[in-house]
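User: Can you predict the 3D structure for this chain?
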Amino acid sequence: MTARRICAATAYNMRMEITLPELEQAINYWRSLRPSTGEESALSPEVNTLATVYALMIFDHRKSIALDALDPSSRQLVESWRKHTA
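Assistant: Here is the predicted structure, written as structure tokens:
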């Protein structure tokens, strides 16, 4: 595969789906912005939302998920993460 095709495939992936490792990065990004709180170390709403997607992907043995398959709040968090880390 040529470098141009690899680059195009990466650009497609950046827009249309998120992989499990990317989701881990997004979770860590939001954890750094909104750390756990209280004695119980409760997750922030942002981290909790993405952690739910992560857990379902693990349960379903999925390596990636289409952004269109995410609920609007999860998708917005992923898109915001991508915008701030690009």
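The mean pLDDT is 87. The radius of gyration is 14 Å.
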